[in-house]
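quick q for whoever's on today - can somebody do inverse folding on this one?? i tried earlier but teh output was garbage lol. tokens:
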């Protein structure tokens, strides 16, 4: 987590751009962490936290976040790009801000709690982005940061006869949401409040996955003085009926060890000197997590199974290898028009595991050759360490991806996954929050659908309303370049992607030559880290409606042919572009955009 000294003042300047002065005025704000805010929980020696160099704070919803330059007690920085205001509303870190209301004595902001957190250790200390907020007036100029979050401290105890490593922790909440989009009220005179009843419909989530850098959990040899290893997880305030904790474990040599699971047992109040909140004894009952509190949960590993306790996993091979196997499967056939990912919701039993794959006879009505361990014409598309097998086979005109795994996890590398499959018209993911194709681990989606010249429909079923948007969890994706390049028959596309980690040239030619794409809604896209937008919308000749309302082009330095051929005015009428005013000015200068455009300017 980003670290911040309690009770120290950090001077940060904001140069205000004014249209009526030749020189910039400088507004100096003082940033203070409130003494009741525990901003850094993972430090075993309890040293007070401090600002890290490069920490970013969003002030008044600006596209350009305020950056703190150093680790000293008092630091002065002069940053241009934030307008002067009667009030200044700030959220740290800048990356969690989804939107912010008009600055005032009280303002409302929407922030994002990531359901997939990376557990980072540096010099035996944990770093976690702890969302904090502050409001100050132009007269006061002092931002007093208070936490918008809480901490679940998992105290893991190894009661086995061997040491092991933790690879992944999963927390599932029953009765309360522990990640997603939350509305927050920020006040200059009171505490920030997260309004848990105002969750966005597509943002609420009751499962939180924490990826651990193979942290060792030594065995307990003294029962009177057990060894606990702490894992601190950032959550919004919530109330839950109970929690289920799960862990994926490795041997100390890095090989697969097993899975373990437990219903939460809350530690007694005197178990940890920092524990607070409703922690009064060992119980499996309700869990209350107030704002700005640490709630300690005790998680004992006393049994391990080869099977996944609650979830049923399968891991796909890398994108290029997956692509090769699908193309080998299709061969010269021209009648294969769709790809479908199946999912299974039946009982999860040990016989379905990879190691025992030959002990059952059918899957989805297809009989296996138990001697050769697979039906004729099927190909395996899972990794060698996948707990469950995943098969691709042809069923009529459809390539079906099938497995007993309820969760089919995409590889971190999904590049070229469906590249150059010229007969495929439809891809159906058949995904919900509870089952199906999962992309939380993916970092590379470049060229994922490039060259699919017959593709017309890409859909995923994500929520109870069966929306037809393409929803992927793209939290960790850094590269989407050429993702839909030359998908010349795509007509309408709405992408519910989180792109805050996509950087550099990660969007180059993403929609190049999508000639028939009439509507493109990428309003969920943020582009703060993008520096190269070359040919992003190149030759999108039928584009009638383009929504890029959250684009930020402040850091873009290369935009060659970004919008060249975006619109064929003589045949198809006028394009409507929804964007912010600075983005409009950016598009009209050197991107090749036809100037006869209807603009829908948003804040």
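ok took a stab at it. sequence:
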């Amino acid at each position: 987590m980003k670290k911040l000294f309690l009770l120290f003042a950090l001077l940060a300047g904001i140069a205000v751009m004014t249209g009526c002065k030749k020189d910039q005025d400088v507004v100096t704000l003082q940033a203070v962490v409130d003494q009741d805010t525990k901003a850094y929980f993972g430090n075993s020696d309890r040293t007070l936290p401090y600002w890290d160099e490069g920490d970013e704070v969003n002030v008044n919803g600006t596209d350009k976040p305020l950056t703190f330059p150093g680790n000293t007690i008092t630091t002065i920085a002069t940053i241009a790009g934030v307008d002067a205001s009667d009030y200044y509303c700030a959220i740290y870190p800048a990356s969690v801000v989804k939107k912010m209301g008009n600055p005032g004595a009280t303002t409302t902001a929407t922030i994002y709690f990531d359901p997939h957190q990376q557990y980072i250790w540096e010099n035996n200390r944990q770093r976690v982005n702890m969302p904090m907020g502050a409001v100050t007036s132009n007269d006061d100029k002092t931002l007093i940061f208070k936490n918008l979050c809480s901490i679940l401290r998992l105290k893991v105890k190894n009661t086995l006869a061997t040491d092991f490593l933790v690879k992944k922790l999963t927390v599932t909440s029953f009765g309360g949401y522990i990640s997603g989009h939350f509305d927050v009220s920020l006040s200059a005179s009171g505490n920030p409040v997260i309004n848990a009843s105002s969750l966005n419909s597509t943002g609420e989530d009751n499962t939180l996955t924490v990826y651990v850098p193979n942290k060792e959990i030594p065995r307990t040899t003294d029962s009177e003085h057990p060894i606990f290893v702490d894992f601190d997880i950032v959550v919004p305030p919530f109330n839950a009926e109970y929690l289920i904790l799960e862990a994926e474990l490795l041997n100390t040599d890095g090989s697969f060890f097993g899975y373990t699971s437990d219903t939460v047992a809350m530690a007694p109040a005197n178990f940890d000197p920092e524990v607070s909140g409703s922690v009064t004894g060992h119980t499996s009952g309700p869990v209350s997590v107030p704002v700005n509190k640490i709630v300690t949960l005790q998680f004992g590993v006393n049994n391990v199974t080869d099977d996944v306790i609650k979830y049923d996993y399968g891991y796909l091979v890398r994108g290029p290898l997956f692509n090769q196997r699908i193309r080998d499967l299709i061969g010269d056939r021209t009648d294969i028009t769709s790809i479908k990912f199946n999912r299974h919701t039946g009982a999860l039993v040990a016989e379905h595991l990879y190691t025992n794959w030959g002990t059952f006879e059918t899957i989805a009505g297809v009989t296996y050759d138990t001697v050769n361990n697979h039906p004729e014409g099927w190909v395996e598309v899972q990794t060698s360490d996948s707990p469950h097998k995943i098969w691709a086979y042809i069923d009529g005109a459809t390539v079906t991806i099938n497995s007993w795994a309820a969760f089919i996890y995409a590889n971190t590398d999904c590049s070229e996954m469906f590249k150059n499959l010229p007969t495929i018209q439809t891809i159906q993911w058949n995904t919900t929050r509870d089952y199906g194709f999962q992309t939380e681990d993916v970092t590379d989606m470049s060229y994922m659908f490039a060259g699919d010249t017959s593709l017309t429909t890409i859909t995923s079923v994500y929520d109870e309303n069966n929306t037809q948007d393409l929803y992927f969890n793209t939290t960790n994706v850094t590269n989407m370049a050429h993702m839909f390049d030359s998908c010349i028959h795509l007509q309408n596309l709405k992408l519910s992607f989180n792109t805050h980690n996509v950087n550099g040239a990660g969007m180059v030619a993403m929609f190049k030559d999508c000639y028939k794409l009439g509507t493109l809604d990428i309003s969920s896209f943020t582009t703060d880290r993008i520096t190269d937008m070359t040919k992003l919308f190149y030759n999108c000749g039928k584009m009638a409606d383009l929504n890029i309302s959250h684009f930020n082009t402040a850091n873009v330095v290369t935009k060659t042919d970004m919008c060249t051929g975006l619109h064929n005015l003589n045949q198809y009428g006028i394009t409507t572009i929804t964007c912010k005013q600075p983005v409009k000015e950016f598009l009209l200068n050197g991107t090749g955009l036809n100037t006869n455009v209807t603009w829908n300017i948003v804040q």
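fwiw Residues 338 and 426 are 5 Å apart (CA to CA). also The chain is about 5% helix and 35% strand. so keep that in mind when u check it
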